[in-house]
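Students often ask why we bother encoding 3D structure as a string. The short answer is that it lets us treat folding as translation between two languages. Here is a chain of 211 residues written in the first language.
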Amino acid sequence: MAKNGDKKKDDKEYPSGLKTQTKHGIIAVVFFVLALFFLMSAFDVAGVAGKFTYEKLYLLLGVGYVLLPTLLVLLASSFIKSETPDIGWTRVISGTMFLLSSLGMMDVASGRHSGGLLGEVLSTPFVLLFDSYASLVFLGALLIISILMMFDAKLNLLPFFKNIRSFFAKKKKGEFTSALNENEKEKIKKAEEPPLSPLLGGMMERRRHPD
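And here it is in the second language, the structure alphabet:
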């Protein structure tokens, strides 16, 4: 009975007989191939199917079409790195958020609806409610959240702030060192000047005050 139970458990865990890493590897290869296809379509080297695909997707995405192969490469990388079995819906949601937020930011930043129809549809309510700058902030936050979800990573800002602090500390130290060097140069210059002899000093005084 125990053996039958274990067998059912194994069948439920791997219904296709493939390990999780193998499934993720297959999905990653599919994403890489699709990314290459979309990239080739943009350069009109993917035949009739590529040309048709590019024309239709360009209407939807505009200049943001380049985000599609980028997104697929990111998704493929996340599948390769992930060891969690059930990550399908998480990747779908994070990928959709990444694409839409990026298109919205492109549309708002360009001011000419460069994000295609999807970018215009997404950015219009944001701009009406929050104006351009605040819209970029909110859409940028969604973009960061989507990347964190995609790679299941935590946000660690401590090294970032440490780098900023060390940068300003080095800059301040450099300014202080340059000022110190200038003072040292002045002291050296004065020390290198020859002393005025008493005889020469007397002659100078006579020239200034002749009898």
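Translate back mentally: Residues 2-155 form one domain. Keep this in mind for the problem set.
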